[in-house]
Amino acid sequence: MVSMITFYRAHFPGQPPETAVIVADDSEAEVLWEWVPNTGLWHRATQLENDFLFGDEGGTYTPITAEEAAGLLERVPRLDKRRDVAARMLQRYEAQPPTEKRTNAEMGLTNKLTGLRPMTAPGLGQLMTQARRHRSWRTLALYGPGTGSAARQFISQWDQRPLSPQEPPLELRATARGENTAVQARFVSK
């Protein structure tokens, strides 16, 4: 479900000006999300919420369009797991429950905007595994108007196939999301 999302380019004191950090405010859910390239997912950014709301850490948050946010995703630096702080941050992100993780499609970013292949997100398998307990559907891909049969082709490519040899197959479906078509998935129950 896509809420009212506003994207921001964040900058923090001491950070090189060209560094891209992308966050998104979901004003309806009152949650701040951060793009984490290591997982290829958006994660709840509790460590930034006070700064975003009150300026506690001196960060600046410049509003950007969804198109600008999508164009910057590949410029966000990966967390360097060789550094202790970055490794701990990544562990925290990976340990978050599925309700604190979102795909690009769940953020309202279409495949065309991001140019990313949704099934290659490194954290997708873990997200789907976590969601399996609840048999919940997750939106993996979002196709805008005028994309023809792209959603059906995506489904035919992945329906009843596993993400990895260790996982059960996925079942996929297409649903209307306003003017867009969303492709949702969940693991096939055993």
Attribute tags:
190 residues; alpha+beta; 6-stranded antiparallel sheet; 3-stranded antiparallel sheet; 9 strands
Describe this structure in words.
- This protein has 190 residues and is an alpha+beta fold.
- It is 26% helix and 27% strand.
- The chain has 6 helices and 9 strands, in the order ββββαβααβααβαββ.
- The strands form 2 sheets. Strands 5-1-2-3-4-6 form a 6-stranded antiparallel sheet. It has a 3-stranded antiparallel sheet with strand order 7-9-8.
- Strand 2 (22-26) and strand 3 (31-36) form a beta hairpin.
- The two termini are 26 Å apart.
- The mean pLDDT is 91.
Report the uncertain regions.
Answer: none
Largest sheet: 6 strands, antiparallel
Gyration radius over CA: 17 Å
**Strands side by side in the biggest sheet:** 5-1-2-3-4-6
Arithmetic mean of pLDDT: 91
Number of extended strands: 9
Question: Strand-residue fraction?
Answer: 25-35%
User: What's the helix count?
Assistant: 6
Order of helices and strands: EEEEHEHHEHHEHEE
Structural class: alpha+beta
Shape: globular
Helical residue percent band: 25-40%
User: What is the CA–CA distance across the termini?
Assistant: 26 Å
Task: Give the topology.
Blueprint lengths: L4 E7 L10 E5 L4 E6 L4 E4 L1 H9 L5 E5 L1 H7 L11 H12 L5 E2 L8 H4 L9 H9 L5 E6 L6 H9 L11 E8 L2 E8 L3
Antiparallel strand pairs: 1-2, 1-5, 2-3, 3-4, 4-6, 7-9, 8-9
Short description, anyone?
With about 190 residues, the chain is of the alpha+beta class.
